[in-house]
Amino acid sequence: MPETLAIRLTIAIATRNRADSIGQTLDSIMPQATDGVEVLVVDGASTDRTPEIVAEYQRRFPALRYVRLEVNGGVDRDFDRSVGYARGEYCWLMTDDDLLRDGAVSAVLAALSGAPSLVIVNAEVRNPDLTEVVEERRLSFARDRSYHGEDLDRIFSETAFYLSFIGCVVIRRSIWMSRDREKYYGSLFVHMGVIFQQRLPGEVIALAEPFIIIRYGVAKWIRREFEIWMFKYPDFIWSFPLISAEAKAAVTPRQPWRKFARLLLYRAKGGYTRAEYAKWIRPQLRSLAERLRYGGVLLVPGSIANLLGLLYCSVASRQKVGFKLVELKNSPHYFRNWRRRSCDA
Fold it and tell me: What is the DSSP string of 289-341?
């Protein structure tokens, strides 16, 4: 792409060791990279074939740039670096294992015509091999929504649950660069920290049409899921001083681990074991009754908890349990996985 051509949008992908999926992601993006759009891959020191795969795409697509870092800085730092390397007026912080639907880039460019601060791109969710739809749209909006940038409470309460997914964020680069980012390194949600630390200076648009296909269940943080969603994410959500308690509570309880049903679900998924109890739950407890309540979940065999979860999913609406069903089937306690492990042994 000629250096003199103004770049409206950078699709910035921070990646590491995604040789198994980065090609499919780029296949969905590159044909949509029209004039004024660049695609930037920032590689956090991959040790697999990611560099060779991206190089193959570079030979075919001049709009693709590749930056290899000497050291992996973690997802927050590397996405921040990708915005720093970007040449576009706006940055779409795209993930390295998900896909864009046809028309996604043109829809975002159309939304940028009014010079918003932020565009939130809706997504459909599928299982890991993309053969089944888990959720038709993350944001349930039937029509695009527009927010005044200063109305942080409304933006937060209606979209923050989805904004945990960084790939939905299209933000004006100057806003990103003007805000504190290092404070949020290690949180896994640097983008939300940038968005909600101050009021936004202009319009925020949420696109109702799901232009992203999320591949659910393959995230690299999956082994830390209990720590993240029971502790780190709630602490993060409740840390924003400009957001009301009501808006925060609409996204997550302050201590979600105190809900018995959630602990039982994590037991069924294989995410709540004696190790999680000892490290995260036990230090929070002040009485014998609490220890019996929260530790008692561990007395339920994982296979029984998994079966109970599957029975619940069989009678509940698919829209409500789609995510849970994928998680339960990925669990080491799922009977087919147990049988497979027995055969392997």
Answer: HHHHHHHHGGGS-HHHHHHHHHHHHHHS-HHHHHHHHHHHHHSTTSHHHHHHH
Q: What is the pLDDT of residue 217?
A: 82
DSSP-based three-state secondary structure for 11: strand
Give, as one character, the DSSP assignment of residue 53. H
Cα 160 to Cα 244: distance, rounded to the nearest angstrom: 13
For residues 296 and 285, give the distance between their C-alpha atoms in angstroms, rounded to a whole number.
Answer: 13
Angle between helices 318-330 and 260-269 (to 10 degrees): 50
Q: Which helix (H) or strand (E) holds 226?
A: helix 225-227
Residue 195 contacts residue 171 (beta carbons within 8 Å)? yes
Q: How far is CA 107 from the centre of its chain?
A: 21
pLDDT of residue 322: 77
Residue with tokens 């749209």: 137
52 CB-contact burial (10 Å; exposed 0-12 / middle 13-18 / buried 19+): exposed
- Residue 164 DSSP symbol: T
The token duo for 18 is 């995604």
Q: Give the chain's domains with CATH numbers.
A: 9-215 (3.90.550.10), 256-344 (no CATH)
> What's the helix, strand, coil split of the chain in %, to 5?
50, 15, 35
Q: Is 200 exposed, middle or buried (0-12, 13-18, 19+ CB in 10 A)?
A: buried
Contacts with 6 (C-beta within 8 Å, 6 or more apart), sequence order: 36, 89
Beta-bridge mates of residue 171: 91, 118
Q: How high is the pLDDT of residue 114?
A: 95
User: How does DSSP classify residue 132?
Assistant: S
Q: Are 2 and 87 in contact (CB under 8 A)?
A: no
**Calpha distance 100→211 (Å, rounded):** 6
Residues of the chain with pLDDT under 50: 1-2, 342-345
